[in-house]
Design the sequence.
């Protein structure tokens, strides 16, 4: 399945999980600190616990194409886990995990498990797989830097990872 991607980004921030949670939870503000988020609009507020919240996001990518996504919150365990299902130009799931690291840091892990929906992406997936992964990781790296700047904290130990699967070679890089 050349059209499926499982991509994991991980970084460490010198702040607490509640600060990061508040930033992630307020998706409408993402365009203020995440440069690639062009627009974020809440379509449905969801339940009292936030599940069912539906948000439309428009992303611009380093490769100069846009992605239109609708993300529905499926699970929330404040301030440690936030999960959503995505439809639109990509279909799948995204999961944020915030893991306290000592008294003054949090490891932020984002797992993106999606399939390509756009016909041109699916057609060229086998050839462009490394390029699509690079594009995703550039967006995530930018988000990590934007998150740190918005929270006024230090970013360290940034890593991009792709688990090994039969149709996708592993990719592990480390940099901040």
Sequence:
């Amino acid at each position: 399945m050349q059209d499926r991607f499982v991509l994991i980004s991980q970084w460490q921030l010198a702040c607490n999980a509640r600060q990061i949670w508040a930033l992630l939870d307020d998706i409408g503000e993402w365009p203020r600190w995440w440069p690639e988020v062009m627009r974020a609009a809440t379509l449905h507020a969801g339940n009292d616990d936030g599940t069912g919240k539906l948000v439309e996001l428009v992303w611009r990518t380093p490769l100069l194409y846009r992605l239109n996504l609708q993300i529905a919150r499926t699970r929330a365990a404040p301030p440690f886990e936030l999960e959503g299902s995505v439809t639109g130009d990509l279909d799948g799931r995204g999961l944020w995990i915030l893991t306290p690291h000592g008294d003054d840091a949090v490891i932020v892990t984002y797992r993106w498990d999606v399939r390509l929906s756009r016909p041109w992406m699916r057609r060229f997936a086998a050839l462009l797989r490394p390029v699509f992964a690079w594009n995703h990781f550039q967006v995530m790296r930018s988000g990590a830097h934007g998150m740190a700047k918005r929270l006024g904290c230090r970013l360290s130990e940034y890593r991009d990872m792709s688990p090994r699967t039969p149709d996708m070679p592993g990719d592990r890089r480390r940099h901040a």
